[in-house]
Amino acid sequence: MSYRKINIWDTLDWWTVMIYFLLVIAGWLSIYAATYDYDHTSMVDLSGRTGMQMIWILSSVLIGFSLLMIESDWYEVFSFWIYIFVIFLLIVTIFIAPEIKGSRSWLVLGPVRIQPAEFAKFATALVVAKVMNVYKFELLNMRSMMTLLGLIFLPMLLIFLQKETGSALVFLTFFLVLYREGMPGSVLFSGFAAILFFVLAIRFSSDMLNEKTPFDQFLILSLIVVFILGLLFNYAKGRHHVKYLFYGIFGVSFISGIVFKFVPFNLCWVVLFLIISIIVYLLFLFVKYRASTYLWICLFTVCSIGFLYSVDYVFNDVLESHQRVRIQVALGVIDDPSGAGYNVNQSKIAIGSGGIVGKGYLNGTQTKLKYVPEQDTDFIFCTIGEEKGFIGATIVLIAFLILIMRLIYLSERQKSTFHRVYGYSVACIIFFHLAINIGMVIGIAPVIGIPLPFFSYGGSSLWTFTILLFIFLRLDASRSDRL
């Protein structure tokens, strides 16, 4: 393979660069609005958040320029070393970082604090892209898949140990990248089912269908049966098996309904009996037809039941108390407007008070009176909603959507697997941050400390998204190097 030198300024995607600067400047102005003090109105005062964010922006621009000057092959060659170095930082952070707001995730270097968990995002994106670009790599090969999962879950585990749940969950976005590269959709479906089961189990844990039947268990067990039928209909070779199962389920349900009228009992036992019968039937089909599909559906069924009955342990014994309360508030299990739900409640008030066009720049009363905690970091979007209203908030979301769609477009035109996988990783990480942060602010997702890309105050976050983006811009600019 031969190479030819190019002028990077001719091949650089300036549309993405322009969107980046627009978002960063809008974020800086939003931080100024969120921290505005009538007694100190300077935007460049380094003792204030706006002045410090200006330093982070200038340093980010310098970092972005430096990344563009590095040969694109360097990122693939040194991806493992970057990953190993960041893993080392994550391990060190667990032991030497001071405890700040219940977590040990910040390394203090004099006047500067950095969060290695942020840098782990681009390091993992690089190493995943590197592994998937290896000659004869096969995603569906068990050894290859286990290697990828190990590389993704290792930093995720270390960040969990730092008690930074939000940053750790970001790494789940790599499964969207794997799906683009050929991972079966059933894996994503299983993940969706696990999240759904967890939410339903927590939301309806105290409800009863009748005096003997827990509603959450009955609902989830019934969903498992529905999912089994759906999987068989989509993946099994003989759809007549679904017909036989449907007849059997209808018959057992009809008989149980008649018996229940005279002898009330726990209906969960009926559904469990149905599921066990289905498992036996699936194993019979697997032995008869030697089709692995039946075995995988059987495995999904068993894992679903195991997950259902482990939710209570995970929720009560694994999660921290403040995490449990935040989840319960988000799901509407408890109402705590003066406690755990205070941030979200005030955020929704601020956004709602903005109306269609907003109150005007620097005129947000909720913002000026500091009613919303963390309004310049995790809850920066409420400042936008209050001052710019529905129209301004929509424009910001459209700008993010354009950026994500642009990244997907650039990723699809890459000739190298390394470039494409890394590009999708960047798009998915930004999408996850955007979706969860907006969900937190409007109260449909638990508060887990996810910053809004390019808007939330902080050097580590801005540096990370700048590094993520400009490495990909450098890779994209070099796509015509290879002849």
Give a verbal description of the structure.
- The chain has 21 helices and four strands.
- It folds into two domains: 291 residues, no CATH class; 113 residues, no CATH class.
- It has a two-stranded antiparallel sheet. Strands 3-4 form a two-stranded antiparallel ribbon.
- The protein is globular.
- The termini are close together.
- It has 483 residues and is mainly alpha-helical.
- The longest helix is centred in the C-terminal third of the chain and has 33 residues.
- The model has no long low-confidence stretch (mean pLDDT 86).
List the SSEs and their pairings.
Layout: H1 8-11, H2 14-34, H3 49-69, H4 72-77, H5 79-96, E1 107-109, E2 112-114, H6 116-132, H7 142-161, H8 165-169, H9 174-180, H10 185-203, E3 208-210, E4 213-214, H11 215-235, H12 240-262, H13 268-289, H14 292-308, H15 311-318, H16 321-331, H17 342-353, H18 365-368, H19 380-412, H20 417-442, H21 459-477
Antiparallel strand pairs: 1-2, 3-4
Helix pairs in contact: 2-3, 2-19, 3-21, 5-6, 5-7, 6-7, 6-20, 6-21, 9-20, 10-11, 10-14, 11-13, 11-14, 13-14, 17-19, 19-20, 20-21
Short description:
With 483 residues, the protein is an all-alpha fold.
Percent range for helical residues? 55-70%
User: What is the distance, rounded to the nearest whole angstrom, between the alpha carbons of the first and last residues?
Assistant: 7 Å
Mean pLDDT: 86
Oligomer: single chain
Strand order of the largest sheet: 1-2
- Name the helix and strand elements from N-terminus to C-terminus, one letter apiece: HHHHHEEHHHHHEEHHHHHHHHHHH
Count of extended strands: 4
Overall 3D geometry? globular
Low-confidence stretches: none
Radius of gyration: 26 Å
Number of helices: 21
* Count of spatially separate domains: 2
